[in-house]
Amino acid sequence: MPNLSRRDALRRIGRAAAVVGGSAALGVALWDQHGHRGEGSSQRPQTRDFRVRDDHPTLPQLAIASTGTDPLALTQSAVDALGGMARFISRGDVVTIKPNIGWDRTPLQAANTNPLVIAALVRMVLEAGAKRVTVTDASCNEASRSFQRSGIWKAAHDAGAEVVLPAKHRFRTMRLNGEVLDEWPIFRPVVDADKVINAPVVKHHNLAKYTGALKNWYGLLGGRRNRLHQKIDVSIADLATFMQPTLTVVDATRVLMRNGPQGGNIADTKALHKVIASVDQIAADAYSCQLIGVRRDDLGYLDLCHQRGLGTKVWEDLRRTEV
Amino acid sequence: MGHNEAAPDEVDRSKPSWANRLATLTPWSHGKKRPPRPGSGIEARPIIRRLVWARRLCQAAFLALFCFLIFESGFRGSFAATDEPVRLALPVEGFLMADPLVALLTLLSTHTIYRGLLWALGVLALTLIFGRVFCGWICPFGTLHHFFAWVFPSRYGKGNRRVAQNKTHPVRQRVKHYILYGLLAAAVAGSTIGGLFDPICFVTRALALVVLPATQYATNAGAELARGTNVGVAQRASDGVADFLAATVWQTNQFYFHETWLIAVLFVAALFLNRFIPRFWCRVLCPLGALLGLTSRFALFGIEKTHDNCTDCDRCLRHCQGADSPQGGVKWRQDECHMCLNCEAACPEDVIKFRFLPNYLSRQGAPDTQRRTALASAAAGAVLIPVLRAADGLDVNTNERVIRPPGSVAERELLERCIRCGQCMKVCPNNAVQPALFEAGLEGLWTPILIPRIGYCEHSCVLCGDVCPTGAIAKITEAQKLGIDQAPISIGTAFINRGRCLPWAMATPCIVCEEFCPTSPKAIWVEAVEAPRRAAEPAEAEGDPSGATIAVGRPHVDPARCIGCGACEKMCPVQDEPAIAITSVGETRSTTNMILLERGSYN
């Protein structure tokens, strides 16, 4: 056997040393000395307040439109009564409208917001000079079906909005730091906008009794939100604490009186031909719940929100107008 | 004919440079720069050179079309009117409808040809004119094998060993006929279990249930990394890619399929066999190829050979797809030939000529199967079905979790129709329809079942029946499913596990099941009770004297109204084993799997 040359010996030793040194360096660099590095969020608790400063001491804070039966006109006159969309939307804003598109139901079944109300809002927002309008929701039923069959997809698209379907990559885990809501996946298109319009529909809800503006924020959450029902009032209050929209427009053109929130039977619905617009989402719900015969004092989450100072459930205290 | 006269340039050509290889691959190279041909150097007819390229393009186009139709096998929403029935715009099950084996299997088992399966006559007619062009030009699985046999060249992929691999191997190549006979006999005995081996079903199942979801998973993981970088450009790009893929290739949600490892293993194995024998599946296993081989003997188009010109250079065999003996001195095996035309394009001696109405001086049209083995395999197929059904699971002791999609025909008829293609699983918008492993017995392998914990049956959706090519799931309408002016279609019944249900067992408000129950009136109804609640500081004494209560709604199921959709089971917050679950009892399709004396009064 020929003797190993010095060069070869050095090369082999060098290679071995490089492998040992390299793995040692890598090991030290990636060493998780105390275990489970990367767990726990470094994020600070967050809230999203999209309200504009109320520098119009004479303009109403709550408007109820009930003249006529055309949802487009009702929506227009309700917002106009508050001073018009220009009061809320500035030129160049990126605006998100959050209807209730929870269910695979048609407009007549009144489980989702009326598409005409959404179309009217989109048009008004664009006229006010918004750069972009997004209409979106995180549906309960399969999203494509819910968006199509609610009629909102087509209505919003035709009015000039970008319609965004929920997808896993559109959620971002955020710290809400609520009483029961800690860290949840939050639907980015809603919280990343400049202005947000909450556009729910008035419905009966078997557990919450009434669903409107505040319960509509369930559509902000991803993940398995079915656990929230165990503390439905507190979780709704937590969401309302996190999320204060620029404007709330409640669709009560056709409402679900029974079998909510999903409905499915036109016999369970009732045409009311009303649209309620408000800068205070608590007051909007406090007013709207009585439309399906629910007393505001029976709604635990309204009390919680009222106590937390998020708004007032005594809507009579607000400057209001009926058109 | 035993001598092997090496052409002068054989040495150079045995180690082709990449440039050379590319030059032989590009269609435009055929004019001026073609490398000199060996032997007599007779050029292939221009029409054949063009047809070889037409064949390659055709293969690519059909594979692309096939993938496109798989991608389109899902509902992504549209701007259609709200009351318009939701259907797919394209016949996504087109390849399956044109599959003669599917048509024949279901013809033998049901004595009818279901709807679109009549298209199979088109492929049959094509075969009677041109031979097995389906295998060589159209079949997406065949194209995949062709491709993989080319990219991982056979281990024996060079020189004479490669030529040897492409010579007809009668013993091996008979196997597919025996498989075919067994499957046809099983169909006569009442089972379309043959769908397990049908190439279109095989590749549909593999792409839809394994390749696509796995690719989506990997893509999502990559997108997750890009979003984690906090670099705006990367985040926007990853969002854009995710949106684009969700709108074109898959759905917005990750799809998961039940125990698909076996589908994955078999798919990879089928492709990997190309490393040892090119197009192993097509030559040895494919029952559709065997069926087309049986009919191709009547084809009008075929090979005429001039044996005297043959120098035994074997260039025809280097790229022979079917191992069908195109070389001189032996009979051409018409039943094995995929009509790829490579042999004539390669022949430098003017031996092989494809033409209409060739003289059949040198061909063998019929497969050389052994009668005894053929009979034995048919007998095996016929016996298999009673053997499988004599075990429990079909007539007695059925599995309560075999929940068939809405519109499914009764179990015995379903086994006469289901070809296990997986289209219903791909199209289900909620990922609810899943391939059974052994839940429905060995015979029910990869037949569709609902697993509500993965996804529930969307109330107004009828897409699974819409894409089913064989009628195992009937094409029902929304009115039938929802029960508008008739009884709705039920696929099972929900049962509450009171030991796990929050309001029943833990004095905690919940009733998500009731919220998601889609029927009207709801099949789940709620009883308001004051449930005893444990005080915050449990007393040390026996029991809890605090007397505190909490108002909860306790869910109950009305079996007369429950349709078994599984929305309650999917949404139940008791995460691992749900507190409400569906079993198949009460399903409309069965006359025996019943629960109530009367089905109850629907609207």
Q: Strand order, main sheet of chain B: write it out.
A: 1-3
Distance between the termini of chain B: 83 Å
Portion of residues within helices of chain B: 40-55%
Please tell me what the overall shape of chain B is: elongated
Helical run tally of chain A = 9
**Cα distance spanning the termini of chain A:** 105 Å
Radius of gyration of chain A using CA atoms only? 26 Å
Structural class of chain A: alpha/beta
Largest inter-chain contact set: A-B, 41 and 50 residues
User: Could you report the average pLDDT of chain A, rounded to the nearest whole number?
Assistant: 92
**Arithmetic mean pLDDT of chain B:** 90
Assembly type of the chains comes to: heterodimer
Q: Tell me about the largest β-sheet of chain A.
A: 10 strands, mixed
- Beta percentage of chain A is 15-25%
Q: Please state the overall shape of chain A, judged from the principal axes of the Cα atoms.
A: elongated
Measured by DSSP, the beta-strand proportion of chain B falls in 5-15%
In short:
The complex is a heterodimer of chains A (323) and B (603). Chain A has 323 residues and is of the alpha/beta class.
Describe this structure in words.
Chain A has 323 residues and is of the alpha/beta class. Chain A contains 9 helices and 14 strands. Chain A has helices at 6-29, 71-81, 115-127, 143-149, 152-159, 188-191, 232-242, 281-288, 300-307, and strands at residues 48-49, 62-65, 94-99, 132-136, 162-164, 171-175, 183-187, 195-199, 201-205, 209-211, 243-244, 247-256, 269-278, 320-322. In chain A, strands 2, 3, 4, 5, 8, 9, 10, 12, 13 and 14 form a 10-stranded mixed beta sheet that branches. Chain A has a two-stranded parallel sheet with strand order 1-11. Chain A has a two-stranded antiparallel sheet with strand order 6-7. Chain A starts with 5 loop residues before the first helix and ends with a strand. Chain B is mainly alpha-helical and 603 residues long. Chain B has a two-stranded antiparallel ribbon with strand order 1-3. Chain B has a two-stranded parallel ribbon with strand order 2-4. Chain B has a two-stranded antiparallel ribbon with strand order 5-6. The longest helix of chain B has 30 residues, at 199-228. The radius of gyration of chain B is 30 Å and the shape is elongated. Classes of the chains: A alpha/beta (323), B mainly alpha (603). The interface between A and B is large, with 41 and 50 residues.
